[in-house]
Amino acid sequence: MLTKRLIACFDVVDGRVTKAQQFQDNIDVAPAEDLAQQLYEDQIDEIVFYDITASAQKRKIDLDTVRRVAQHVFVPFTVGGGIRSVEDMFAVLKAGAEKISIDSMAVRNPSIIREGAEAFGRQCVVLSTQVKHVGVSAGLPSGYEVFIDGAREATGLDALDWVRRGEDLGAGEIVVNSIDRDGTASGYDLEITSAVADAVNVPVIASGGAGNVDHIVDGVTTGGAQAAIISSILYSPRFERNPSVRELKTALSERGVPVRPYLDA
Amino acid sequence: MIGVVDYRAGNAPSVGYALARLGIEHQLVTTPDQIAAAERIILPGVGAAKATLASLGESELIDSLATKVVTDRAPFLGICIGLQVLFDHSEEGNTPCLGWIPGQVKQFPLTARVPQIGWNSVQLRRDHPVTADFPDGGHCYFVNSYYAAPADTADVLGSTEYELDFCSIAAHDNIVATQFHAEKSGPLGLSLLRAFAGWDPQC
Hints:
heterodimer; A: alpha/beta; TIM Barrel; 12 strands; B: alpha/beta; Rossmann fold; four-stranded mixed β-sheet
């Protein structure tokens, strides 16, 4: 049986993992490769790594950090931020990443989704979306709007229209990242997550807001997601205590969520 | 020395990193001469069957691979698309494949969410030196929309359930292939790579 994935998400600035709240006030946590190795040893299922300033600073992604992480982490590893072309994707994949996450660039240039899927297969192309609840209007029938550039720019795109288009263009997974819930530890936005899961046939990943095990359970049951992105709960200094991956998996398993079992060495 | 076939559409560096972690001698190979010089071969893969075969063809690697694997019977490990291209034909883009293992590659039923992405369990169907240390039911990382159906069930070394029961490890003479990404399946995947590195198909 296919299990639900726990994905650790890193927001990386200059090779270091940082933690933000609602896309602001980043605080420094640890070097990306150290945290990646630590979580790999704790048997995280997957890691996503966003070079969050690459896009805004219009520079290329930090391939050295990608390479160093890939040398120590033998679970799948997705990289996003600052990817503007198929050649950029090729460089990141050859540096050792399995998947490319595209977000703001996909809104600016949707054909990059199709070009990436044609060149590397749709499983390499993760469409990440920043969505915000704005209320139903004529142009936004779902009531959720897509934002870009670190949640700063509204696009006028309806979240469900956008994910359907992304799937049609060739995205192999969709990340639903709630701007309202990001860093709040108040739970995923289950309404939009489940609406996206119903709208597309590719795997959907819940993101933004996981603060405890119940939130993860809700994300992969009520939210209909195939995977849950977690970050604060794993390593944010704002948390009194960060549970291990092992503790999270044990708790998920006890609540009936199928997970990849923890292997004793 | 293991030759890891490095072609444009592949993820050879990831396999190389895993072998490096295990301390296994290997080389990323890009030319027919390098393939001829290798003692054993790993064909990694991501993406689509047609693109993979086209990419191998452009690099003029198919003949040298066939000589090495089919004629010389060198130990061979295919990974993901590197498994699917070994069969006769793939429904993906209606693609004729290498035909080293009899069988077809089919699309998952339309009722399935595809691609299948994530950790799924592998049931061992028989004994084999490459899976000697692999725990029955162990979880590995899959990414696939298509699956292989070997003509001879004896070629099914491991199977996995996703809408239906499919072949997740194929074994045929000197060939072993995993539908999952052994290089990204944590300690279990690494142990499988280690076992392949020490496997002598003549024994």
